[in-house]
Design brief:
68% helix; mainly alpha; 2 strands; single chain
């Protein structure tokens, strides 16, 4: 009976896995396409408001940190050296160019200043002692700014010196004075003393000590009565600007002494944003200078024909080395290439800033061009001003590398002096 039941029991075939259709979906054994397995629901996308807030937070975090500190230090050192060197070179002729013997009379300078709203303290008095005080004070301010001593105060004094000397005789100069007038204004709003300065050295030495800046506070207190005296006796449209700078410095000293830490952090972030904006303005200003110069040259017939450099070297004013000008003038292909290369580089320079490798190649070429203009055409101060302005685009790694190479001999000498002093100490101790 058991065998009979086993013989008559139907054999059920093993189930086959469902086949795949041409579209990749599963097909059941009966022929119809099976439904795909359920997929997990996608995560809900972030709302536009959340994305906007996140982007704003990232931007604020980025903008509240100071950037291009090494570039700002290079600008400070370069323009401080440039202006001090310029005033020292013109020192024998200072009275004729800017002083009491100037053909541009004092009344004419006052009239022009009132029409153009330009600032200069040299029109306050026509006496020689006042001119000598302002002129040598401008040299001292430039040297102190170059060294980075109390840069918050010396940058303002540097601005006063630059505007006073340059606006006394606005028609003296080779266009480099226009550049330094603009850059002196921008440097006031930068943190140009945070690197390569005496201020940075003082902060490193007293990093672990909560010492207050008593010398800076005394300078700030001394400048208040001077500014009040100038505002009463010689009111000017620039007076509110200098009062705002003096008040901002006072807020800094008050915050350092009495404000809580959160408030000081907020003021520090605001100062960093102001520094970043000033550095951006400097970069844009340099781009405008190059673009306007290149576009203006491209409209001239002599630049289009490639002969502008040749005619410039035939003017006696631009022939400091006649033999060198004559040698270059005989190579017309070289002059043609210089003309077209100058126009192309000046117009294309702002567009190469987004490509680091191209910019790093073009920037040294621009500096070499300015050096050639200074030597061949005898325009040193304009070339020096543009070369210093180009430093805003120098890579930070290159500036740090240059700083390490320049400070290596000083560090070696310092270590050698310490070792020599350490060897002499036992001898001094054994002496009776």
């Amino acid at each position: 009976m058991k065998n009979e039941n086993a013989a008559t029991k139907p054999v059920v075939p093993a189930p086959h896995p469902p086949a795949e259709s041409a579209t990749g979906r599963l097909r059941s054994p009966l022929g119809f396409i099976a439904a795909p397995p359920p997929r997990p629901a996608p995560a809900a996308p972030a709302t536009m408001r959340r994305r906007f807030l996140d982007a704003g937070a990232r931007f604020v975090t980025f903008a509240s940190r100071p950037h291009s500190l090494y570039q700002a230090a290079a600008l400070r050192i370069g323009f401080g050296f440039f202006f001090a060197f310029y005033l020292l070179c013109e020192w024998p002729n200072r009275r004729v160019l800017f002083g009491d013997l100037n053909p541009w009379a004092l009344d004419m300078a006052r009239t022009l200043g009132s029409d153009t709203h330009s600032f200069t303290v040299l029109t306050w008095s026509g006496d020689r002692w006042w001119f000598e005080l302002v002129y040598h004070g401008a040299i001292a301010a430039a040297v102190l700014l170059m060294l980075g001593w109390r840069t918050r105060a010396t940058s303002v004094l540097f601005l006063v010196g630059v505007l006073s000397v340059e606006n006394r005789s606005p028609f003296v100069g080779d266009a480099g004075d226009d550049i330094i007038r603009l850059m002196a204004i921008y440097l006031v709003f930068t943190r140009c003393g945070h690197m390569w300065s005496l201020d940075a050295r003082r902060r490193r030495m007293h990093a672990r000590q909560s010492r207050r800046d008593h010398a800076g506070l005394m300078m700030w207190l001394a400048m208040g009565p001077m500014l009040l005296w100038a505002s009463v006796l010689h009111p000017d449209s620039w007076t509110p600007v200098f009062w705002a700078m003096w008040a901002a410095q006072g807020v800094y000293f008050a915050a350092e002494r009495w404000f809580p830490r959160d408030t000081r952090a907020l003021l520090d972030s605001s100062s960093a944003m102001l520094h970043n904006c000033a550095m951006l303005v400097i970069a844009v200003q340099v781009c405008f200078i190059y673009c306007s110069a290149g576009l203006y040259k491209s409209q001239g017939s002599t630049w289009q024909s490639g002969s502008a450099v040749y005619y410039a070297m035939q003017i006696d004013l631009f022939r400091p080395w006649p033999w060198l000008s004559d040698i270059i003038a005989t190579h017309m292909l070289l002059i043609f290439g210089l003309c077209y290369a100058t126009v192309i580089m000046q117009i294309s320079f702002p567009f190469t800033l987004g490509y680091r490798r191209v910019k790093n190649v073009l920037l040294p070429l621009m500096m070499l061009e300015h050096a050639g203009i200074a030597v061949i055409l005898g325009i040193p101060f304009l070339s020096m001003a543009m070369m210093v302005s180009d430093a805003v685009f120098l890579p930070t790694a290159f500036l740090i590398w240059t700083s390490n190479r320049l400070t290596r001999p000083a560090g070696w000498l310092k270590r050698r002096t310490k070792a020599k002093h350490a060897r002499l100490q036992p001898t001094a101790a054994m002496a009776p």
